[in-house]
Write a structure and sequence with these properties.
CATH architecture of the largest domain: 2-Layer Sandwich
Oligomer: single chain
Number of domains: 2
Helix content: 40-55%
CATH class of the largest domain: Alpha Beta
Number of helices: 9
């Protein structure tokens, strides 16, 4: 459908350029069009004849016009090529730069990935069973998230729409790529946010009530492998997982922290206008 539309656009623009730049062709085109309209519907064409009698003059005029155009192209190839490029360039640039859409913003508002659209519109997904607290107290986890043992992993405190989108991400990470996801932290109280902000900008750049965590619209996640939480980005397996996680999260309309200046690969959030005074990460 896109190719047909681009071709139609090209033909219309090309015809318009020819009619504007070359007055002679414009007069012939108008004359031909008026002649065709005045003759009405053409009679049956005889076998072996190239034109019916009622359109003989029209065909002759068209052939003369094409011959003149061919003569112009052969005599001035550089000018003709430049004009052709100017006509074709917008369509070629649009096709070259066109990237796969995350969302299809047509009237039906469907998501480009049909499986994701079905999951979001279908039966409500159920959060996974909570993991034992001790899996969040390993040396690896504490080195990266030292206070994560006190973080909330209560799914019921999260926004319902955000929860469903995050669960779709978890489901597709398992089904498509074999990664088991685990929620590290969901809802974060203003008091906890303030304590984290006091630790410095390397922990968070958002103060109390200035993070989507406080509104149940953000979550930090990691991976679960062989009974352990894998959170380190130095693990090539985990780093690959974070990239896949970010791609799927963006496909369901979430903002991924892996694209921020202060990288936060496990963080996703569902941004809403009016929730924060400004869009603040973490």
């Amino acid at each position: 459908m896109v190719a047909v539309a681009v071709l139609a656009y090209f033909l219309v623009v090309a015809l318009g350029v020819v009619l504007v730049v070359f007055p002679g062709y414009r007069r012939r085109f108008i004359s031909t069009l008026l002649g065709a309209l005045s003759n009405g519907v053409a009679p049956v064409v005889k076998v072996g004849s190239r034109c019916s009698s009622s359109f003989r003059r029209t065909c002759e005029s068209s052939r003369q016009g094409l011959g003149g155009l061919g003569l112009f192209v052969s005599s001035k190839p550089l000018l003709a090529g430049s004009a052709f490029f100017l006509v074709v360039a917008p369509s070629l640039i649009a096709l070259t730069l066109r990237s796969p859409a995350v969302f299809d913003f047509s009237d039906d508002g469907q998501i480009a990935d049909r499986q994701i659209a079905i999951l979001l519109e279908g039966e409500q997904l159920v959060p996974p069973a909570p993991l034992p607290p001790e899996v969040f107290t390993t040396r690896e986890v504490e080195m990266i998230r030292p206070d994560v043992i006190n973080a909330s992993r209560n799914w019921t405190l999260l926004d319902q729409l955000f929860t469903q989108r995050l669960l779709v991400v978890f489901k597709l990470m398992k089904e498509r790529h074999g990664y088991d996801m685990v929620l590290i932290e969901g809802y974060r109280s203003p008091e906890r946010q303030a304590r984290l902000a006091e630790q410095g900008s390397h922990v968070t750049q958002a103060g109390a009530n200035m993070s989507y965590h406080q509104y149940g619209l953000a979550a930090d996640s990691a991976f679960y492998r062989d009974g352990k939480v894998v959170i380190s980005e130095r693990d090539p397996w985990a780093m690959k997982g974070y990239q896949l996680y970010g791609e799927i999260a963006e496909q369901v309309g979430l903002t991924w922290g892996g694209r921020w200046k202060m990288l936060d690969y496990g963080h996703v959030e569902l941004r809403r206008k009016g929730v924060l005074g400004r869009d603040v990460v973490q």
